[in-house]
Amino acid sequence: MSCPDSLPEHVLSLLKTSKYLHLATCSKPECIPSLSLMNYTYISPDRVYAPEGTEHSSTDKCHYIIMATQRNTEKYENIIQNPQVSVLIHDWVTAKKLSLRKSSMSNTPTPSEPVQAEPAQTQNPDHPSRLLNLLQELNQSELSQMSATLRGHAEHLDASSDEFNYYEQELLKQNPDARVYTRGENVSVVKVKLVNAKVSDRDNNTKFYD
After folding, report:
1. 174 within domain boundaries
2. Which of 81, 116, 142, 168 has the most crowded Cβ, counting Cβ within 10 A?
3. Are 155 and 191 in contact (CB under 8 A)?
4. Could you tell me the pTM of the whole model?
5. Distance CA 12, CA 14 (A)
6. Tens-place pLDDT, residues 155-187
7. Which domain holds residue 169?
8. Considering the domain boundaries, does residue 129 fall inside one?
9. How many structural domains compose the chain?
């Protein structure tokens, strides 16, 4: 299965900096979809696992995503039956900043604090509230950011292999919060080889990378 010839720098930056993604799997033959929020780490071509004593192959230009899951989950069973998966990543940086603004705006006066009425000339029943303005701004900022849908081929790694240990450590190094998903003997490390990408913005400008 081929890899994209290249991925745009803004997609690579998003893959490197984001903490979560949405993983879509589908059962077979029922074709029942499932969606999960996942911790992950991105593996660039220069960080792909190479067995000890061998050099990294310069021909391996593929990009990978590493995740961990328990084996008694729906997503695990789906991947076993159907390794075709999709992931969605989104730039939430602006939305986070607006969320902080919302928190600061929610501090309403206490009963002991006098509330001054707005001047009559500024009172307008049709004027939206500050919260409504914030929500509108939040919606627009979310849409203005780039979203990327990446399709890939998922593989469960052998828990006794050096490759499993290598990618588990890479996952925890980049994302320590994922440690809770790597505990116990029922853990599966999933390697997703990215096959293509679809990138969209708020103006519905869409580009495909194969």
Report:
1. yes
2. 168
3. yes
4. 0.73
5. 5
6. 999 999 999 999 999 999 988 888 888 888 899
7. 9-93+142-209
8. no
9. 1
